[in-house]
Amino acid sequence: MTDHPTGPTSQSFVSQRLRLHYVDWGNPTAPPLILLHGGRDHCRNWDWVAQDLRRDYHVIAPDLRGHGDSAYSPSGDYSMSSFVYDLAQLIHQQKLAPVRIVAHSLGGAITLRYAGAFPETVEKIVAIEGLGPSPAMLAERAQRTPMERIRTWVAETRKLAGRTPRRYASIEEAFGRMQAENSHLTPEQARYLTVHGVSQNEDGTYSWKFDNYIRSFSPTDFTPAEIQQLWASITCPVLLVNGAESWASNPEKDGRMAHFQNARLIEYERAGHWVHHDRLDDFLADVRAFL
Predict the structure, then answer these.
(1) What percent of the chain has pLDDT over 90?
(2) What is the pLDDT confidence band of residue 3, given thresholds at 50, 70 and 90?
C-alpha cells in the first residue's frame, strides 16, 4: 500500500441547487463504480481503494452534501431523502447506470435506500456497516413519542446553531484528533486523511470541512419496516461488511440480513468501523472477487 496515492481530477454536479463535489479517477471506458463515504468523512478517504480499483473501473467518489468540498445546505437539511436524491442525480446526470457501489456507514444507508427504490440501476453493492442503528437501538427509539422526538430534534438543532466549529492551532493537532478517532490507522493514513479533511480558517487555524448541522437527525423518516421493504426490493447481489471490533451490530446475528434477496456477510477480525482502512489488502481482495 502506498501512503500517498496519485490523485484524481475534481468535478462537480448540481443537486437541489447545491454544487456538489466529486473526484473522478479516470478510465471512463471501464464499468462505472461509485465510492460513497460516511458521515463527517470525505471522498478522499477512499484514495487507497480507488487507486487499486481504477485499473478496472471508472471510479467516481463524491463528497456528500455538507461534507468535504461539497456545498453546505443553506437550510441545514441533511435528511436521508436529500442524500438519496443527490446520489440519484449523480447517477442520472453522469449516466452511470447500471452502476456498482461501494459505500461506508451513512453512505451505505443512502445506497441501500436508493437501490431499493431504483433496483434496475444498480449492479452490485458493497455496504460497510451501512444498515444504520441496530434493532435494539431502534426499539429504544420507538419508545419515544412523536412529541418527544420533535422536541429533542428542535433542541439539538438549536444547540448546533450556536456551536462554533472546533479550531485546531495546527495540522498536527488535528492529526492527533484523527489518530484518537481510529487507533487502527497508521500515522501515514491518519495524516493523509487529516490533510484532505480540514480547511484553513482566516486566522490560520484549521477546522474539519463538514457542516455541524449534519449531526442533527430528522425526527421524521421511514419506519424500520419501510426500510426493510426497501432492502427487500434490492435485486442485485449485496456484500455486507462488518468489523469485529466495531460498535455496529452484526446483521446476520441480529436478523437484518434476512430482509435482503441476495446478501452475504464478511466480518473482519482486527477491524473497527472503517474496515476499508483497518484491513485494506484483505478488503480489496474480497471486493475485487465480489465485483
Answers:
(1) 93
(2) low
> Look-up: residue for cell 455496529?
248
d(CA 223, CA 209): 31
Place of cell 473526484: 23
Q: How far apart are the first and last CA of the chain?
A: 20
Residue 145 contacts by C-beta under 8 Å, 6 or more apart in sequence?
Answer: none
One-letter amino acid at 143 equals Q
| pLDDT (tens digit per residue) in 250-261 | 999 999 999 999
The full DSSP string for 204-253 is S-EEESS-GGGGPPPS----HHHHHHHHHH--S-EEEEEETTSSSPPTTT
Helix (H) or strand (E) holding 7: none
Please enumerate, as own/partner, the contacts of 219-227 that have beta carbons within 8 Å and a separation of 24 or more. Answer: 219/146, 219/149, 219/150, 219/152, 219/153, 221/79, 221/80, 222/80, 222/113, 224/135, 224/138, 227/113, 227/132
Tens-place pLDDT, residues 9-58: 999 999 999 999 999 999 999 999 999 999 999 999 999 999 999 999 99
Residue 47: C-alpha distances to residues 60, 99, 181, 249, 265 (Å): 11, 19, 19, 27, 24
* Cα–Cα distance, 261 to 251 (Å, whole number): 14
Bridge partners (DSSP) of residue 102 are 35, 126
Q: Is the peptide bond before 5 cis (omega within 30 degrees of 0)?
A: no
Q: Which CATH class for the 9-141+221-290 domain?
A: alpha beta
- Residue keyed to cell 473501473: 57
- Say which residues have a Cβ less than 8 Å from residue 200's Cβ, sequence separation at least 6: 206
